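User: Could you go from structure to sequence for me? I need the amino acid at each position, not a summary. Structure tokens:
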């Protein structure tokens, strides 16, 4: 019988990863006395045979599954207003045990509570041009997440440096998810499909950062390989203007319509507080690093059979 997690992953279209491994150890030269070894030693030997991850682990990029139970200041710099609560709950994560929860409570009727984001430090902040980067995160919104057509909820940004307000973003608008090109000349916005509530969905974005017309953008939903058909794609575009830094990686929640200068009137109280959850956050130089696996690695074997 399939586990609950595997069934849930399949229903959302995500890749189910094995959570149980049975290792059969056969007698061969040099291990003829395997049967007489203590069970703990046999388990350790079998674990060593399968402990190597089945997919590459990033060593030159940002990787965070929040498994320390904290928001690490070495990786993230919080950018927030009043009304923001960023926590790391346990249980029900996309990978491992912990995940990031961003909660934003509105301030009607004047507004002002509009940001609850984590800005990446280091490699997530300083991206050379030209270069290619892959950005990944798992996203979940609650089952009771109220649809809201007021400017939407930004859950990921690739934000230009040098004081520019231009950015690419993944945004929830009413019952849909959108790719947004805001305040920039390269590329345009497009649909990423219907919003799935109450389940983790994986998002992978490739950006070829170029200050000429050789740039590229691809966005995948629950990808298994780079050869999968992207949900959204644009070719031959300028992805970063000359003189500006490539997009800074940001996750969390940003709701521009809750600023003081354009707070909605009338206000839909069902939309507050807004809650979004992120896990398995990565930025890599290749698809394998950025989007090809999980941050927690494969689970150790749960049982060993000696034949």
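Assistant: Here is the amino acid at each position, in order:
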């Amino acid at each position: 019988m399939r586990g609950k997690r595997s069934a849930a992953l399949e229903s959302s279209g995500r890749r189910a990863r094995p959570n149980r491994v049975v290792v059969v150890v056969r007698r061969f030269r040099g291990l003829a006395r395997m049967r007489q070894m203590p069970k703990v030693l046999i388990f350790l030997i079998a674990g060593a045979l399968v402990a190597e991850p089945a997919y590459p682990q990033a060593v030159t990029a940002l990787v965070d599954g929040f498994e320390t139970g904290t928001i690490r200041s070495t990786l993230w710099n919080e950018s927030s207003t009043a009304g923001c609560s960023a926590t790391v709950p346990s249980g029900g994560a996309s990978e491992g045990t912990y995940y990031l929860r961003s909660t934003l409570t509105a301030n009607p009727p004047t507004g002002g509570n509009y940001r609850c984001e984590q800005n990446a430090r280091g490699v997530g902040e300083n991206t050379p041009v030209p270069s290619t980067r892959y950005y990944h995160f798992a996203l979940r919104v609650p089952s009771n997440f109220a649809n809201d057509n007021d400017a939407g909820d930004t859950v990921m940004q690739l934000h230009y440096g040098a004081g520019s307000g231009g950015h690419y973003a993944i945004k929830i608008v009413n019952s849909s998810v959108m790719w947004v090109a805001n305040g920039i000349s390269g590329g345009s916005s497009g649909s990423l499909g219907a919003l799935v509530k109450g389940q983790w969905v994986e998002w992978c974005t490739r950006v070829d950062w170029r200050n000429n017309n050789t740039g590229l953008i691809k966005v995948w939903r629950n990808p298994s390989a780079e050869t999968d058909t992207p949900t959204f794609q644009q070719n031959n575009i300028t992805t970063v203007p000359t003189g500006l830094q490539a997009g800074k990686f940001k996750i969390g929640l940003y709701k521009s319509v809750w600023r003081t200068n354009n707070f909605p009137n009338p206000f839909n109280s069902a939309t507050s507080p807004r809650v979004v959850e992120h896990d398995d956050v990565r930025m890599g130089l290749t698809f394998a690093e950025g989007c090809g696996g999980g941050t927690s690695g494969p689970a150790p074997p749960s049982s060993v059979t000696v034949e």
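One structural detail worth keeping in mind: Residues 1-11, 16-37, 39-59, 296-307 have pLDDT under 50 and may be disordered.
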